[in-house]
Amino acid sequence: MIVTPQSMQFKASLPLQCGAALRDYALSFETYGELNAARSNAVLICHALNASHHVAGRYAGQDKSEGWWDNMIGPGKPLDTDKFFVIGVNNLGSCFGSTGPMHTNPDTGRIYGADFPVVTVEDWVNAQARLLDALGIQTLAAVMGGSLGGMQALSWALQYPERVRHAVVIASAPNLTAENIAFNEVARRAIATDPDFHGGHFYAHGTVPKRGLRIARMIGHITYLSDDVMNEKFGRQLIAAAKGGGQDDYLFSTLEAEFQIESYLRYQGDKFAEYFDANTYLLITRALDYFDPARTYGGDLSHALARARCKFLLVSFSTDWRFAPKRSREIVKALLHNRLGVSYAEIDAPHGHDAFLLDDPRYTSVIRSYFDSVEVTP
Amino acid sequence: MIVTPQSMQFKASLPLQCGAALRDYALSFETYGELNAARSNAVLICHALNASHHVAGRYAGQDKSEGWWDNMIGPGKPLDTDKFFVIGVNNLGSCFGSTGPMHTNPDTGRIYGADFPVVTVEDWVNAQARLLDALGIQTLAAVMGGSLGGMQALSWALQYPERVRHAVVIASAPNLTAENIAFNEVARRAIATDPDFHGGHFYAHGTVPKRGLRIARMIGHITYLSDDVMNEKFGRQLIAAAKGGGQDDYLFSTLEAEFQIESYLRYQGDKFAEYFDANTYLLITRALDYFDPARTYGGDLSHALARARCKFLLVSFSTDWRFAPKRSREIVKALLHNRLGVSYAEIDAPHGHDAFLLDDPRYTSVIRSYFDSVEVTP
Questions:
Q1: Which ipTM did the prediction report?
Q2: In 10 A of CB B119, how many CB atoms?
Q3: What is the pLDDT of residues B302-361, one digit of tens each?
Q4: d(Cα A97, Cα A77) in Å, to the nearest integer?
Q5: Which residues 94-123 in chain A show a CB within 8 A of chain B?
Q6: Helices A178-192 and B210-224, interaxial angle, to 10°?
Q7: Do the beta carbons of residue B35 and residue B115 sit within 8 Å?
Q8: Chain A: nearest CA to B214, how far in angstroms?
Q9: Which residue in A35, A323, B250, B290 is a FRET match for B323, CA 20 to 30 A apart?
Q10: Integer angstrom CA distances of residue B331 from A227, B23, B357
Q11: Predicted structure pTM score
């Protein structure tokens, strides 16, 4: 499936939860499959921290350019683009084409940098709704996302209850725990205290706070994997052993990478620092921290979800300690309390939070059969 | 109990596992209680990452100078200094008085800095044994430690099986998991990539890599606490709420601390960066990484522990995810396989890894009754 990214420009001001507004902004997006005549088969995909609108398919002439959920979405795949019209969209504040901190603020003529307004899950959903308006789509057959994307799917059901028929919320949570926030905060401090960050205005200094981005990504990777899968993949294996050296070859160094888990994390950190924007990292982790639909209902999630009208599929993974199954079960219970239709699958997978992006036949068959059941009037 | 730190100078060269040697080094230590005539009542306390030889008691004129295990050790306390002669010792490479990277290398006349040799748990135990020699103590009634200190206690039983009668190994593990090493590595990278680190020779530059130390400590603190206790202590409480503001007052900032867990971590990081040495942090986390007594036995822990001759008490805490109970059980099983006397207590405590430093009547009574049973010939 060869795909082409598109961009839509929005003139009208978008009011944000923080009190500011964005105007003259762009959203990058992609679509897969065909919108049917009744415009009833649209599925919106919401992305997590470091993903984008490039959800499925490949770009022409770029063999290794699969979208981040290409295993899940495409012709004949669990979310079948022969049946559904699927839309991927890059969120505001991100760094893959939609308006973000590296772009020019039309009010000042200067690059936003640290002045880009703090966006929330609710703001993203509002922006996505305007994109659907522009595409002539009133109602979504479904909205789907994993992790932070799942929070957006849940928020769609609350902000636009009449515009969503199904919400698929994977490896997600009704809000972050103190530990989740703590990991985000350490990552943010690593970035913000990197001397190359310059208070978020590093573009003007011609620098990139790569040290901080590397640390942030290394912390992230630890929390995406389970202890078990890390032990299985890396254990205590030395790099020397992988290079054919004996297991007795401790380097006795504190600065060189000695264990394979160390070189894996350093590699992931280096790669990430080359392409990801530091201000985007701050914004997106903060949107995670702030998401908490029960907050304005005195912490009562059942009360908060009473607005929802759609059907739900929730999926969690047994070894996901970042967004543990018990967090998904909180959502399930609150939905059931409201007598809403909810299916829930708890997949016994070893891969931790990352499992939502991986192929597991139990997981993909749950998604496939759920979407098989989604009715689409032609 | 008023105590006084002491220091012992060692001329003779101490060969290290890395192949280097240390000479003309000092060990800081303290003692509590009286060594009996038979010299049979000595208990050595081994410290973990950021602690020292100041284990119990107070310094004269300093009301708030309690030792780090003062709740456990003293007259009438679980480890009763009316019965035992207790020794606390600061490890080589640390930053509380014993020779470390901030001291002068006698071979070069320059400050060690990054050239301080990489020391291991086994090296520390050898240095501790020389201190005992100098104090005229041939056999320990017991050696006790938590976390990294527990690794030293275990290693004592293997390196000097005839010199230990009891080993008390608390909240510890037979080696680090890949995830443990991963957290250590991120902390080390934060320090080593701080521009103020200068390859470990920051003393000569008049700088301190405080940014890196702060990040390292924040990561550490997350792993010392359980998710549960973090939620109970901080939850999603805003700083504004603690200051009397309403819960609706999101600051919508990525740089300011918003949640109470954030200010807690920042405070812990700031405090740590004021007193802890960056090179020491690298050395001590590396000693943790390297400890693995089963390594030279093809990973067979039972085989590795066959050398031990003493009796053991193992203690673990249910919510400790850094050194989980299952890691202590691995040691217990290997000891039982060798038909060694072992008692094991798994305490259902909410406080995570930090529990080993806290007062819990179930925990302290286990320690008390174990030491009551340790026979001391007068």
A1: 0.96
A2: 27
A3: 999 999 999 999 999 999 999 999 999 999 999 999 999 999 999 999 999 999 999 999
A4: 27
A5: 114, 117-118
A6: 170
A7: no
A8: 9
A9: A323
A10: 19, 34, 21
A11: 0.97
